[in-house]
Design brief:
Distance between the termini: 28 Å
Shape: globular
Largest sheet: 3 strands, antiparallel
Strand order of the largest sheet: 3-4-5
Number of strands: 5
Helix content: 40-55%
Radius of gyration: 18 Å
Amino acid sequence: MLHRYHFVLNYQLKARLIDEASKRNLSASKFVRYIFKKLDFVLEQIQLKASPTFFKYQIIQADENLTLNLDKECYFWISEIQDCLKMYSKAQLVRTILQFFFDLKDLLENKTFVSFLQAWSKSWEEEKKNKRKWDKSHMCLIQSQKSAILSKSASHELCEILLI
């Protein structure tokens, strides 16, 4: 099941996205889903390692809009990361990931790009295995009770306790 997602971006990023999608004989929506699938470990790292931004809005030079059909899983994951990082909008994350993908692709050649992503993904999986718990100021794990997660607001007030 797909979710229609509308956001704004700059002309260069949109042109690059559509051009790359047409080279691969994909629609823009399918290509964005492909990017998110390839960079899923990067999204996971962002979610676990980045510190909350507490609703800081990025000023962008947006002159184009784009409507994508994202699968529900991808959309909910973007929403979850937005919530974890206390971002102002999902579009900030989508634009950042798309720009990161194209910047990385420019930096590396196609074969190098694929092998670099595979190596980075493998090292991330190793890092996840070696780390016992991830500390987040807004989602900290209780030491004595390993099956509870505390959710705190931006002012560090307790909002919710999730028992797993």
